[in-house]
Design brief:
Blueprint: E1 12-14, E2 38-48, E3 52-63, E4 66-77, E5 80-86, E6 89-90, E7 94-96, E8 102-105, E9 108-113, H1 115-121, E10 125-132, E11 135-143, E12 148-151, E13 156-172, E14 175-191, H2 195-198, E15 202-209, E16 213-223, E17 226-235, E18 240-242, E19 248-258, E20 261-275, E21 278-296, E22 300-315, E23 318-332
Parallel strand pairs: 1-17
Antiparallel strand pairs: 2-3, 2-14, 3-4, 4-5, 4-6, 7-8, 8-9, 9-10, 10-11, 11-13, 12-13, 13-14, 15-16, 15-23, 16-17, 17-18, 19-20, 20-21, 21-22, 22-23
Length: 334
């Protein structure tokens, strides 16, 4: 990274076009695309108590019954990428469901939703298993709070696990390591070559977690100074509270040059709102300590951050400190 004159950017923000809604397992199932080739992906991440962290998932590019499927994993130690693996399969190797989350490739189950636990107790539990060369994971994600979705006729987003406990095993260069920690899972679909024209030029996304509270947030970049912002506050074992866009303040700053592009390294997120009579306050600063640059959808520059988040989240009379490492991202389509 090379330093540059510090700058900041404040967006004029608008609310998302649809409200946050409750979900069922079908919302995290495969949706597919009938009109055009589109991307769809299941995303999981986790921060573990032994300073390992990871991103794992599966991405599809398809139209009707034709396309490609790519499972992938990225494992970090102290925020630095130490293992990366990806594999590609044709669509005839892909087994899935439109009723519940399921990804099977060449008869190997990658993502398995526990339907029995859901039917009995409405618990959201996933087994995520993947082995590519000498790297792999075998993990259980157990939801700690209620999920939600923002669904439009085009691009859509389901946050099935705003917060989850995670335990199991990771494999790095053939070495198996027991892990436990806190994770997250979401699912996006219907992202195509039209997305930069109809949806946005890119986005910032992240989440913040305290002892029993979680904030899932995103800023969709519509233009250099116009955005669409959302922040949903979740309580462990309870529901979620969407906050009002006009009450959210997001500021990326301390821009530098990285891979020949401008990207911020510091972020402020503030919320001062009252929803259904419940006061909600968030005041958190996120400072970058590691960056992983990549490209997604072939051409889009993408930065995955490990950030140190410090501040507080308050819901009603419950004020909790945020002092943690989190994963966030910045993507630009142009």
């Amino acid at each position: 990274m090379t330093s540059k004159k510090q700058a900041s950017k404040i967006f004029k923000n608008y609310p998302p076009p649809v409200p946050a809604m409750d979900i069922t397992p079908a919302d995290d199932a495969f949706h597919g695309s009938k009109k055009r080739i589109a991307a769809e992906w299941w995303y999981f991440d986790a921060n573990f108590t032994n300073n390992y962290s990871l991103h794992i998932g599966c991405r599809t590019f398809s139209k009707k019954k034709n396309g490609m499927v790519s499972p992938f994993l990225e494992i970090y130690k102290d925020g630095k990428l130490i293992a990366k693996a990806v594999k590609r399969f044709s669509f005839n190797k892909f087994e899935t469901s439109s009723d519940y989350p399921l990804v099977k490739l060449a008869n190997n189950t990658i993502i398995q939703f526990n339907q029995e636990l859901y039917n009995k107790k409405e618990q959201w539990v996933y087994n995520v298993t993947l082995e590519i060369e000498n790297h792999g994971v075998d993990l259980i994600f157990k939801g700690a709070t209620k999920g939600f979705k923002y669904q439009t006729k085009a691009e859509s987003w389901t946050v099935a696990l705003p917060k989850a406990t995670v335990e199991g095993e990771i494999t790095v260069n053939g070495k198996k390591i027991k892990v436990n920690g806190i994770g997250y899972h979401d699912h996006n679909w219907n992202y195509s070559l039209l997305t930069p024209l109809t949806y946005g030029k890119g986005w910032y996304w992240g989440k913040l977690m305290s002892k029993s509270l979680t904030v899932s947030w995103a800023e969709i970049i519509k233009s250099p100074y116009r955005g669409e912002i959302l922040a949903v506050v979740s309580q462990d074992g309870k529901g979620y509270i969407p906050t009002n866009a006009e009450k959210i303040f997001f500021k990326p700053e301390k821009f530098i040059r990285n891979n020949r592009r401008e990207m911020p390294t510091s972020f402020d997120l503030k919320i001062d709102d009252v929803v259904n009579g419940i006061p909600i306050k968030v005041d958190v600063k996120m400072e970058t300590y590691e960056i992983h640059y990549n490209k997604v959808l072939i051409i889009a520059p993408y930065w995955r951050y490990h950030v140190k988040a410090k501040g507080y989240i308050t819901v009603g009379s419950n004020k909790e400190q945020v002092n943690e490492t989190q994963i966030m991202e910045f993507l630009k389509f142009s």
